[in-house]
């Protein structure tokens, strides 16, 4: 096995977001009562840009004074950590209040829903579990800030921290039960991570002898759902061996249209052009794994 590059840390660890208090000289205090920050990303980019949104369904403005006070301006920012310098960048804020000025009675609360939308260059993530989180272009933990200016020209702000949940990445252990594979029938599992976009590409090779229907089976994917699963029965293997003999080749490219250009497979033959193994190379933007998986044909097809 040859492996180069980093791997995604998919160990589940409970990281608790840091709690901040409302700051400023305004009598209006900002309080987030939302149990979770609801994250989402646009399905597609438009002209190379898309939005990553963060919803706070239960956000409170508390007038702590004995006078009427209104909120004149609401704004939002997010922290961009670049070259070890922390910069706050303006972004969109949407509130479910129709009036331009939010008036708050003395010693009263106003409950509302707030959405912060960050516009980013590039493309949204590839699937729902990746889209329901902060995009990989944003820092983690992600700091968001809500600012207000009241009718007395005083200001308050509140910092909110968002932490992505761990991804449910494919592993051999997670694939065995859904595919109904016996541990003894597994021939090999190869994977490589793209740490830029937090995706794991993999190839699983195993054999089936259910109902005496013998075959070598493959499962290729980058998640636990959209698998590509070709199989080789005895007839297909004979055809591969025939092609190798006719072309006098010890290697043949196979599965060339499966997750191209990330996964490359070569069928390997001996000097009698008998299938011996499959060489799988998975290459991403950040990592690469190469592995040769032996294919014991006699054992697989129950030959004496």
Features:
304 residues; mainly beta; Immunoglobulin-like; ten-stranded antiparallel β-sheet; five-stranded antiparallel β-sheet; 4 helices; 9% helix; elongated
Structural description of this entry:
It contains four helices and 19 strands. It is mainly beta. It starts with a strand and ends with a helix. The model has no long low-confidence stretch (mean pLDDT 92). It has helices spanning 128-131, 172-176, 234-247, 297-300; strands at 2-4, 23-24, 28-32, 38-41, 49-63, 69-82, 85-95, 102-104, 109-121, 142-150, 155-162, 186-194, 199-208, 215-221, 231-232, 251-254, 263-269, 275-283, 288-294. It has two domains: 18-162, Immunoglobulin-like (Sandwich), CATH 2.60.40; 172-300, no CATH class. Helix content is 9%, strand content 47%.
Individual helix count: 4
Largest sheet entry: 10 strands, antiparallel
Order of H and E elements: EEEEEEEEEHEEHEEEEHEEEEH
> How far do the termini sit from each other?
30 Å
Oligomeric category: single chain
Q: What is the CATH topology of the largest domain?
A: Immunoglobulin-like
Number of domains: 2
Rounded mean pLDDT is 92
User: What fraction of the residues are assigned to beta strands by DSSP?
Assistant: over 45%
Give the low-confidence spans.
Answer: none
Helix content: under 10%
């Amino acid at each position: 096995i040859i492996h180069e590059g980093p791997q995604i840390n998919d160990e589940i660890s409970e990281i608790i977001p840091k709690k901040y208090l409302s700051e400023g000289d305004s009598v209006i205090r900002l309080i987030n009562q939302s149990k979770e920050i609801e994250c989402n990303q646009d399905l597609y980019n438009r002209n190379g840009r898309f939005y990553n949104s963060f919803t706070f369904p239960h956000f409170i403005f508390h007038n702590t004074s004995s006078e009427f006070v209104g909120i004149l301006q609401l704004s939002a920012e997010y922290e961009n950590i670049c070259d070890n310098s922390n910069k706050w960048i303006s972004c969109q804020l949407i509130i479910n209040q129709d009036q331009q000025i939010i008036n708050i009675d003395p010693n009263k609360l106003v409950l509302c829903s707030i959405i912060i939308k960050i516009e980013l260059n590039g493309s949204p993530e590839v699937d729902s579990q990746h889209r329901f989180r902060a995009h990989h272009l944003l820092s983690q933990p992600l700091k968001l800030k809500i600012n207000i200016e009241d009718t007395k020209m005083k200001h308050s702000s509140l910092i909110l921290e968002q932490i992505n949940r761990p991804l449910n990445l494919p592993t051999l252990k997670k694939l065995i039960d859904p595919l109904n594979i016996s541990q003894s029938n597994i021939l090999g599992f190869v994977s490589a991570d793209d740490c830029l976009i937090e995706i794991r590409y993999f190839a699983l090779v195993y054999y089936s002898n259910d109902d005496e229907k013998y075959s070598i089976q493959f499962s290729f994917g980058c998640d636990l759902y959209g698998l590509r699963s070709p199989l080789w029965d005895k007839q297909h293997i004979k055809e591969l061996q025939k092609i190798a003999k006719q072309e006098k080749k010890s290697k043949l490219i196979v599965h060339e249209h499966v997750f191209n250009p990330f996964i490359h497979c070569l069928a390997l033959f001996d000097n009698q052009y008998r299938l011996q193994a499959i060489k799988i190379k998975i290459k991403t933007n950040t990592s690469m794994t190469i592995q040769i998986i032996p294919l014991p044909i006699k054992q697989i097809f129950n030959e004496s």
